């Protein structure tokens, strides 16, 4: 089986084209293992679509299928454009979260960066979903291990919960992240974004991804963090979101649409026996 390894700011993916009679969940677990496989945060599968130019399926490292992935969609767009599978610089990609519209920016025949419409943010508690009698879950106090944290939850293709912090301490993130991810508040689990506000136009983020763990970057997490920061008056609507390996630009327009822009890279290509 041929594959391509790609990443957006270190958030890495294995990209393959559709296979017959394969359990993609099992394949993702095998391939994404960093010790016994290729190693990645997720598996992206290229499939034909009846409603868009192409279809993207996303499987997390634990085998669960995700509705949407911001950095994954940007890697996916580079892959299908550079291989001539889709010959449009602005394309329609079918996902479980609906059709998204990545736009590739090309230099010397190679995709240098990708901008993608990420879907409008959803704050309705029942649609995130979150078990709450409140219509929205914004800056709500929640007690975890005897300590109260202010949580803000929204859906940007997938559920995200934002925690604003003074410092991005990895030990704290690794301890608190899975407790929020698997809290009974979230029947489908949640991604957890720890956000440090630098100024009105810059935030630093670390994301604990549902089904993955701590990642170097997260596109939907960047969007959710930027929107939550703006809603709470901490930043402007256009924000640079800084991760360990670089930054992404998030633009939240007045019509409620969100756009995510940043670089993507191919790491290597290979072949592996199944």
From TrEMBL:
Pathway this chain belongs to: Amino-acid biosynthesis; L-lysine biosynthesis via DAP pathway; DL-2,6-diaminopimelate from LL-2,6-diaminopimelate: step 1/1
Gene3D superfamilies: Diaminopimelate Epimerase, Chain A, domain 1 (3.10.310.10)
Localization per Swiss-Prot or TrEMBL: Cytoplasm
Keywords: Amino-acid biosynthesis, Cytoplasm, Isomerase, Lysine biosynthesis
Gene Ontology CC: one annotated term: cytosol
Enzyme class: isomerase
Keyword Oxidoreductase: no
EC number: 5.1.1.7
InterPro entries given in the database record: DAP_epimerase_AS (IPR018510), DAP_epimerase_DapF (IPR001653)
Marked site: Could be important to modulate the pK values of the two catalytic cysteine residues: 160, 209
Single GO MF annotation: diaminopimelate epimerase activity
Binding annotation for substrate: 11, 60, 70-71, 191, 209-210, 219-220
Pfam families reported in the protein's UniProt record: DAP_epimerase
GO-annotated biological processes: lysine biosynthetic process via diaminopimelate
Reaction catalyzed: (2S,6S)-2,6-diaminopimelate = meso-2,6-diaminopimelate
Origin superkingdom: Bacteria
PANTHER family in the record: DIAMINOPIMELATE EPIMERASE, DIAMINOPIMELATE EPIMERASE, CHLOROPLASTIC
Function in brief: Catalyzes the stereoinversion of LL-2,6-diaminopimelate (L,L-DAP) to meso-diaminopimelate (meso-DAP), a precursor of L-lysine and an essential component of the bacterial peptidoglycan.
Subunit structure: Homodimer.
Protein name (database record): Diaminopimelate epimerase
Organism: Thermoanaerobacter wiegelii Rt8.B1
């Amino acid at each position: 089986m041929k594959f391509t390894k790609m990443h957006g700011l270190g958030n890495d993916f294995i990209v393959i084209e559709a296979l017959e009679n394969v359990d993609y969940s099992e394949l993702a677990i095998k391939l994404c293992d960093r010790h016994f496989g290729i190693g990645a945060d997720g598996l992206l599968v290229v499939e034909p679509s009846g409603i868009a130019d192409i279809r993207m399926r996303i499987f997390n490292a634990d085998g669960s299928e995700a509705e949407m992935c911001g950095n994954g969609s940007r890697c996916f767009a580079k892959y299908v454009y550079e291989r001539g599978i889709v010959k449009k610089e602005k394309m329609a990609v079918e996902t479980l979260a609906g059709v998204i519209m990545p736009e590739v920016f090309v230099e010397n025949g190679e995709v240098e960066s990708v901008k993608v419409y990420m879907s409008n943010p959803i704050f309705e508690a029942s649609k995130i979903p979150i078990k709450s009698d409140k219509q929205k879950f914004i800056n709500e106090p929640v007690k975890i291990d005897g300590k109260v944290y202010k949580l803000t939850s929204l859906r940007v293709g997938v559920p995200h919960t934002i925690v604003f912090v003074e410092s991005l301490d990895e030990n704290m993130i690794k301890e608190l992240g899975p407790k929020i991810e698997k809290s009974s508040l979230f029947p489908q689990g949640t991604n957890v974004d720890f956000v440090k506000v630098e100024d009105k136009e810059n935030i630093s983020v670390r994301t604990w991804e549902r089904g993955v763990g701590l990642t170097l970057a997260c596109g939907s997490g960047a969007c959710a963090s930027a929107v939550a920061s703006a809603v709470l008056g901490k930043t402007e609507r256009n924000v640079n979101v800084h991760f360990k390996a670089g930054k992404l630009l998030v633009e939240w327009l007045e019509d409620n649409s969100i756009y995510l822009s940043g670089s993507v890279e191919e790491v290597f290509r290979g072949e592996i026996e199944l």
